[in-house]
Known about the structure:
Helix content is about 40%, strand content about 15%. The protein has 11 helices and 7 strands. The radius of gyration is 18 Å and the shape is globular. Bound molecules: S-adenosylmethionine. S-adenosylmethionine (SAM) binds near residues 55, 151 and 152.
Amino acid sequence: MTEAFTALESLSHRFPWPSQRPSVPAVPWVMDYGGRDLIRHLIAVRQPRVIVEIGAFMGGSVRQWLAMSPDIKVVAIDPWPQIEGPDPFWDSHPIGRLHTGQFREPDGLYLAFLATMWDHRNRVIHARGYGCDILPVLHAHGLRPDLIYIDADKRGEEISICDELFPEAIICGDDWLWCDGWCYPTQKPVADSARRRRRVLKTASNTWLIDDRPWTAAERMIWLRCLPQSFVRRFRAWMRARHGCDSSGNPVSPAKNGCDNSHQVNEA
Ligand SMILES: C[S@@+](CC[C@H](N)C(=O)[O-])C[C@H]1O[C@@H](n2cnc3c(N)ncnc32)[C@H](O)[C@@H]1O
């Protein structure tokens, strides 16, 4: 625990919060696309103290983890990139439309995150950058997270880095059912990691979890409760693919539509 505390302390100097809250509106936007009860249940039972989240956006899921226990600290990674030009996903979402001007200001997303998470700043370290660049920094500072939640670029690039740097951590994430045309790009890297680690792959709706313990009855219940939603998500993905779109409504490049889903695993 002392080592974790030292690493967090050192990272809080490497990624300091500003001295004042940015004077922009908070954006309490939670992008929860289902199945997170699987993670909440795991947090309640195993009580991880240090969580790394890759793809924090406005801290929607970070707040969900923090709410589980006052002892949890989260390192939130995101590039909070500059938004420019139209985007079908942002522009069609009611909250995205509401904050469209704010987000397109210089550092709009980053400042919105800081303002939104201001009251949690003693329990959150915000590391601005891409997961593949930040994870080695966390490792070099001695951080050994208990849990890593990935909700980032859908291609699972960070998964093999996590396997290498943090073999003991439980890895989980979002986007299991995120579809790019006919392809589910998150599924192969997740299934590969579960095989490499010889761990159990659990899924519920959009959420996946590579666990070192077998399914419990409570987890099976969560999976069962999510089943109708999983079918709806698969159906919607299929409808979008027929119109040449990914799950965010963006057009898919033709090159991606011949993708190989042969790795697909049974959702149970
Ligand atoms: C779907 S949003 C995350 C939503 C958030 N977890 C929630 O529950 O509200 C995805 C985020 O991932 C970030 N992102 C994309 N690629 C990333 C990468 N390689 N490393 C870290 N963050 C990334 C994006 O900037 C975006 O903010």
